[in-house]
Amino acid sequence: MTMADLARIAGVSKITISRALGDGDLVNAQTRDRIRALATKHGYTLNVSARNLRLRRSHTVAVVVEMTPSASRPLSGPYPLEILGGISHELTSVGYSVLLTTRQSAVTPALQAADGVILLGQGAHDDAVHLLDRWRLPMVVWGARRAGDRHVVVGSDNREGGALAADRFVAIGRRRAVFLGDLDHMEIAERYAGFRDALARHGLETEVVRRDAFTMAAGAEATQMLLARGKGARVDAIFACNDLLAMGAIRALLEHGARVPDDISVIGYDDTPLGASFIPPLSSIHQSWHDGGVLLARKLLQLIDGKRARSETLPTSLVVRST
Amino acid sequence: MTMADLARIAGVSKITISRALGDGDLVNAQTRDRIRALATKHGYTLNVSARNLRLRRSHTVAVVVEMTPSASRPLSGPYPLEILGGISHELTSVGYSVLLTTRQSAVTPALQAADGVILLGQGAHDDAVHLLDRWRLPMVVWGARRAGDRHVVVGSDNREGGALAADRFVAIGRRRAVFLGDLDHMEIAERYAGFRDALARHGLETEVVRRDAFTMAAGAEATQMLLARGKGARVDAIFACNDLLAMGAIRALLEHGARVPDDISVIGYDDTPLGASFIPPLSSIHQSWHDGGVLLARKLLQLIDGKRARSETLPTSLVVRST
DNA sequence: CGATATCTTGATATCGGTAACAATCGCGCC
DNA sequence: GGCGCGATTGTTACCGATATCAAGATATCG
Questions:
Q1: Are the beta carbons of B95 and A73 separated by less than 8 Å?
Q2: Is the pLDDT of residue A229 over 60?
Q3: What whole-number percentage of chain B has pLDDT above 90?
Q4: How far, in Å, CA of B82 to CA of A170, rounded?
Q5: How far is A44 from chain B (nearest CA, A)?
């Protein structure tokens, strides 16, 4: 069933069908409705390849993802499936296809034909510069913004996330807070910066305990180290850059006999369902992955349409549970 | 840069270019190499839309995924990103595109034009029957096989996984084993069946403690219940249908003063990086998600090529760590 | 040497849409 | 009445690839 067939049935020409199903403004309202009704009735579907060929557009967006989980990043993938859900939802709703690619996979014609690229994953920024030069395609990257970036970046507001944790600690009267995490990661460095600055505004200092891995074990071990120190260095709040580290910390605290949150308050990051189901339920900074995906998609569509798009950060929020 | 352009440069006709880059057999080896060299030199890439139009194939596979994590399934998505990696890798390497779709998203022309469908997620089986009737497309489903299934199913060998856990328990002399999990899920029921049967072969009985959620909290709570029972019902081995439940169980055991694995041995399922980084490192049944994805893709490609494909199960293995 | 088989290349039509331009119709206005 | 205008529909020519059939060149064989 092609347009020609439908045209014959409706007693009009192909182009009228095309216009009736598409633009809609160039065709009489009655004929348009009649044709649309006929199309649904006969189960007609547009041939995407033909349209793409004629329009010289692939209506495809390549999403390049890092997919290998590792012991130091124990959640299933650096970025949750949810963000892909947001991207996919937004793009398919406007007739675009999501071409999922791993960073390792070969550059296929289909990939090269993409109308735009979305990059997810820790190496994204470096890849971005690389790809941008080679392909000159519209491109949007997920992550933290950097100074010289020429590409559009979407990410959640890590500074704000850090500040939210700090404000909470101040609000419940904590005086000695520790930040737990690896400052080499841009996003985490931002979380720390927001945390430190917000505390500084209240005249409080921050201490950093660096750990490279994002595991419970690392969190527990770091916390044991803190607990083993003398009384002079006692802390009453821990902000972990990640829920797993936070959970590890809590575990170590409880094992050591410290009360959470009475003696030491702990806040995690990411608001994972895992943290929510932890005992005790973990307080955490929430960022909406789904919205992030949607925003990435929208920005890219703007670029594809030849409009400008600005880098943007998504708001975060603090979810207070029992820690 | 189209085929026509390249043809002009090479001094041959379009069709020769097409044959040189494709089949390769119908064209002189020298001209073929010359043309291929020219193609790379001028950075020519095939127009996928044009080819698809002519061949009446979309070279696209729709992957339908369940993407919403929830409190009762706290890992980021019911199926890890890794399986998508396997699918994507395999398909893109043979020139197919992966069209990622959520179960909720609308049926777009691009989706309908797919050459095949891969279904992932818990509702997959029911959707399968539905879609198969409506679309008559080649389709492959991830999960456990069921009796009346008319579609091809790929999944890991849950029976074997259960049996491996049982064999291990027998090998280290355990006598009273408990299975922890929700038997309403097909895959988990299989794990239990394998576990129970393997123990039965050694004259041992099994006890089931059902819990619906896949969380640490549920695992801990179930285990506390077990510990609270009288001495007559003492258990010395727990097989959890999931790493999180296993971790919850271990936590409860340690809190109660039981030694793991000396008093009670625990084995989880999925071999998540999370479990590997747990303290103590969790023994678990491993299944290769990546290989699963690859196999799904291969089966589907067979179907698309008009060949037959059989349902298949992937082997599992036991990773012995410290529990 | 002629005929046939094989290898290699080309001309043409076609896949199913959409843009550009042309044509038709009805209407208002001078 | 004739002209111009907007609204609506149609004609034609493509987009860039590949299948089909045909044709020229070369090899093989009796």
A1: no
A2: yes
A3: 49
A4: 41
A5: 10
